[in-house]
Specification:
With 466 residues, this protein is α+β, with helices and mostly antiparallel strands. It has 16 helices and 16 strands. It has helices at residues 4-9, 30-48, 81-102, 105-109, 112-128, 131-139, 144-169, 175-183, 189-209, 211-217, 220-223, 239-242, 267-270, 291-303, 315-320, 329-350; strands at residues 53-54, 57-58, 60-63, 68-71, 74-76, 234-237, 310-313, 355-361, 368-369, 374-385, 391-398, 404-407, 413-414, 419-429, 437-446, 453-461. Strands 8, 9, 10, 12 and 14 form a five-stranded antiparallel β-sheet that branches. A four-stranded antiparallel β-sheet has the order 13-11-15-16, with no helix packed on it.
């Protein structure tokens, strides 16, 4: 039995591993060029898109106070919310599709966390140098050079983060007017809050948290295994070819010495943005950026060994030494479903009419028999002009011969986005009815644009024939 003194001297066990800052080594190669291209294109779209003008307005603008969402030549309204739900479903299926094919492809090349982290790392290299210099600078005591470099980095980071926040708000408030208000210090409280909030989130996530967002905060890493199978392309280390690893000179016949192709240089670990060793197998922290592939290929080139010690491959292809199998039931099902959703979405969007018409029957009375032998039904028509221009509409109804439509008001001019309820009466001679009811169709048509029309079906009720 240990004494109380020994117990007191024993260090408490901790289940938390303190964060170790990662100084990822710079890497060149085909995947690095592809990743840099993705960063430039995606950031370019994000920062340039709000400045593009379409006719007399901003091409991409989500005008929440006016409840109008402009996407180039298309204007969406809150009534078009199902299009947004449709797009979200397409995005989800796309994620399943590309994950089934090539794993965390989204994480490595297109995720906002990855894209902005790359941008912040570029700014860090400009001010503090490469990974070796950054480590030495952090370990050095504070002096004039360290203060100058750290301050320059913070200026660039904060400026870039604020630009990001202002651009984000520029998608919801016209960006040209937004910058004009910023220049005159007349920005509203909510706009100021969101500029600072989104800028601070970018600054914290891309500047400091970085790989911790991928490791601990992102849910995708947790459920990605449900979308993987044995034929999913993942970044893998070829153990059979690389082991046993060990250092050697280029002139040594490593096979004769009983060594594999891996020279145990640890370069794959040094370039990894999440700090893992890919030689230990696929891990939840891997974001599939392929930096380890680029650096390993460069090492293989220097050693005059074949490339591909670390490569994109599948578990089955690696273990069973067979060809990759990309087309398989899961991929075909995801692909077919995705194609059907995209095509149907485009068809629905192309056939979208900026006019809505709904017909609601009067609940107080089913019908009325008039003295002249006519049967009357009362309806409330809801007319919604979803166009960006005002229109004057005419109403009509399709049905049996002798049917009449009577309106309480003839003023059917609606402004953009206006909704109007129009009480109407439909009268049909008793001789024109063969039963207790029939289907009728209300139609609204713009006088200045005959192609702009909408229909609404309803039911006309009548008493039983005598």
């Amino acid at each position: 039995m240990s004494s109380s003194g020994d117990t007191a001297a024993r260090a408490p066990e901790s289940y938390y591993v303190a964060h170790q800052k990662i100084y990822a080594r710079e890497v060149q190669g085909r995947f690095a060029r592809l990743r840099n291209l993705a960063v430039i294109v995606l950031l370019g779209i994000y920062y340039v898109l709000p400045w593009i003008q379409w006719q007399d307005r901003q091409a991409m603008l989500f005008d929440l106070p006016a409840r109008k969402f402009y996407i180039f030549g298309i204007t969406f309204w809150p009534q078009d919310f199902f299009y947004m739900a449709w797009l979200l479903i397409i995005a989800a299926i796309s994620l399943f599709f590309f994950t089934a094919i090539a794993g965390r492809l989204w994480c490595g090349y297109a995720c906002p966390q990855t894209v902005w982290t790359e941008a912040f790392m570029w700014l860090e290299r400009i001010t503090e140098g490469n990974h070796t210099r950054r480590r030495k600078l952090d370990q050095a005591p504070w002096g004039s050079e360290k203060i100058l470099r750290k301050s320059a980095k913070q200026v660039l980071w904060i400026g870039f983060a604020l630009w990001t926040g202002v651009t984000f708000v520029g998608y919801f408030s016209p960006i040209r007017e937004l910058f004009a208000r910023i220049a005159t210090f007349s920005l509203g409280p909510w706009e100021s809050f969101w500029c600072l909030f989104y800028g601070f989130a970018t600054y914290g996530n891309a500047g400091y948290l970085r790989e911790q967002v991928c490791k601990y905060m992102c849910p995708y890493a947790r459920f990605q295994s449900a979308m993987f199978d044995g034929d999913t392309l993942v970044i893998s280390y070829d153990t059979d070819r690389g082991e046993p690893r060990g250092g050697r000179k280029r002139s040594v016949d490593h096979r004769a010495a009983g060594l594999g192709d891996c020279i145990d240089c640890n370069m794959c670990v040094q370039v990894c943005p999440t700090g893992i060793d890919i030689r230990q197998g696929l891990q939840i922290e891997c974001i599939a950026c392929a930096a380890c592939i680029d650096i390993c290929d460069s090492v293989m080139d220097r050693m005059s060994y074949p490339r591909g010690l670390i490569r994109y491959t599948s578990e089955r292809a690696l273990v069973e030494k067979r060809q990759l199998k990309v087309l398989r039931p899961r991929v075909l099902i995801y692909g077919s479903l995705l194609a059907a959703l995209v095509v149907s979405f485009l068809v629905a969007l192309g056939g979208r009419t900026p006019l809505r018409l709904d017909a609601i029957r009067d609940r107080n009375s089913l019908y009325r028999e008039l003295a002249g032998g006519e049967i009357e039904n009362v309806y409330s028509l809801k007319l919604l002009n979803l166009d960006t221009q005002p229109h004057t509409y005419t109403l009509s109804v399709d049905g049996p011969e002798g049917m009449r439509l009577e309106l309480e008001s003839r003023d059917l001019t609606l402004d953009s986005g206006e909704v109007r309820r129009i009480p109407v009466r439909v009268l049909i001679p008793r001789s024109g009815l063969s039963g207790t009811g029939l289907d009728i169709v209300f139609r609204a048509r713009a006088e200045d644009s005959p192609a702009l029309e909408a229909d609404a079906e309803s039911r006309f009720l009548a008493p039983p024939p005598r």
